[in-house]
Amino acid sequence: MPIRAVDEAPLNRFHRKLTWACAGGPFLDGYLLSIIGVALVGMSGELNLSTGDESLIGAAALIGIFAGGLFFGPVTDKLGREAMYTIDLAVLVAGSVLSVFATETWQFVVLRFVLGMAIGADYPIATSLLAEWVPNKHRGRLLGVLILAWYVGAAAAYAVGYVMAEIGGQGTWRWMLATGAVLSAVILLLRVGTPESPLWLVGKGRTADAQKAIKQALDRTVPVEELLAASAAEQAVGQSRFRDLFQGVYLRRTLFCGLFYMCQITPMFALYTFGPTILGSFGLGEGNDSYLGSALISCVFVLGCVPALRLVDRVGRRPVIVWSFALVVAPLAMLGGGSALPVAVVIACFCAYALFSGGPTVLEWTYPNELFPTSIRATAGGVATSISRVGAAAGTCLLPISLDRLGIGTTMLIGAAITGVGWLVSFAWAEETRGRTLAETSSRPGAAPRSTTADNYARRTP
Question: What transmembrane ranges does the database entry give (predicted)?
């Protein structure tokens, strides 16, 4: 039994503010992961960092994201979305401020790990909160906006890094890190006062609190009977636990969400991280202007997400993800021609890859939030994020080795093969969830009616 006041509400100021506030986490992810890459140039010289030190600092955040998603997803389902929603941003502020004053490699590694944990925690926290507040017909698009914010954050980091490096030189690296602290504080303030998810509240039997939250956010009074029906429906599903993600239909959904996410992000993250190096392997330019080039690459990824945001709620999730994966394979396979390809072809292939990857990208957080019930929704999102980061870390670590030993052409073909696996997974397991309530999309196929209370109220309500 859904809460109709939430599922059928028109978009209003609250929804827009909540979307911006939730998008702040992915924006900071893109910004903080990218600004450290720019700052490392100045850090290496001033702090005498070795190649190993740089690798540790760069990998610490990815490891932290893996741990944060895996651990804090279940915590969010237990303690609630609203509490964790501000705590993790406070950690980002503190970690970013301390990074400005760090002087030793181990300090940067620890702080980057902590920042990564906070970022990994924010993914399931913010996405589950937004998914449980927005109307059904807008859910796919608004959840996709969160992914879009990642690329905007990354582009902003490279642009800021480029300007600061040009004006102040490499010695401005601490000021670069300070910008991350300021942005984290701004987004924390934006999140203060956000009400708790009504679905989570009714799932815990707190119907009075859910009624107050809906009144505060949407200025609508929901009959207690409707909330009791929704609470009974949530209780009828049962309080699923972490192990339920690996049983029955939820096992298939867990594998689907984690694998397609990993197959999408593995080549993308590697290409994104080493974009200037890869372009150099194709005979294109590199140097300090590579920061600006990376910012432009981010903008192309943003452009690819824009049409996908409209299509997921118009034509559906399944056709978007299946066709997008199929189209992404082609430019990567063409890049398998290596350095012999004309420059125009290389640029066209990179642009095509960035544009076509928008489909899987905007669904990275939509599917985990739609395919699992409220009691394990954040947990599922955290697990999917953690699985994806295994691929991101592997791709980031192995790509330089592959470029050196196998060459650019073979490396691109490997990326095409990984993307092909993503297409197979999506073709076999992607479900259509467009226009359905979270109660419908997260239920087991063929499940019996959830509760007599819910059914009776639905029959009485016009």
Answer: 20-43, 55-73, 85-103, 109-130, 142-165, 171-190, 250-271, 291-312, 324-356, 408-430
Contacts of 426 (CB under 8 A, 6+ apart): 256, 260, 318, 321, 322, 325, 360
> pLDDT for 212-248, tens place per residue?
999 999 888 888 888 877 767 666 555 567 888 888 8
- Is-contact 93 181, C-beta < 8 A? yes
Which residue has better confidence, 41 or 243? Answer: 243
- Cα separation, 322 vs 63, in Å, equals 29
User: Would you say the C-alpha torsion 14, 16, 17, 21 has a positive or negative sign?
Assistant: positive
Distance CA 161, CA 164 (A): 5
Torsion over CA: 325, 29, 259, 126 (sign): negative
Q: In whole angstroms, what is the distance from residue 11 CA to residue 8 CA?
A: 9
Per the CB < 8 A criterion, the answer to whether 214 and 198 are in contact is yes
Long-range contacts of 314-320 (CB under 8 A, 24+ apart): 315/434, 316/432, 316/434, 317/140, 317/363, 317/366, 317/367, 317/370, 317/430, 317/431, 317/432, 317/433, 317/434, 318/426, 318/430, 318/431, 318/432, 320/359, 320/362, 320/363
User: For 420-450, how does the pLDDT look when each residue is reduced to its tens digit (9 = 90+)?
Assistant: 999 999 999 999 999 888 888 888 765 544 4
| The model's pTM | 0.81
- Please check whether residue 251 is in contact with residue 245, taking contact to mean a CB–CB distance below 8 angstroms: yes
Least confident among 40-49, 68-77, 194-203: 40-49
Q: 78-105 burial by CB neighbour count: b if 16+ within 10 A, else e?
A: eebbbebbbbbbebbbbbbbbbbebeeb
Domains of the chain: 4-442 (1.20.1250.20)
End-to-end CA distance of the chain: 14
**Model confidence pLDDT, tens digit, residues 136-165:** 888 988 998 888 898 889 888 888 888 888
Query: What token pair was written down for 424?
Result: 């197979």
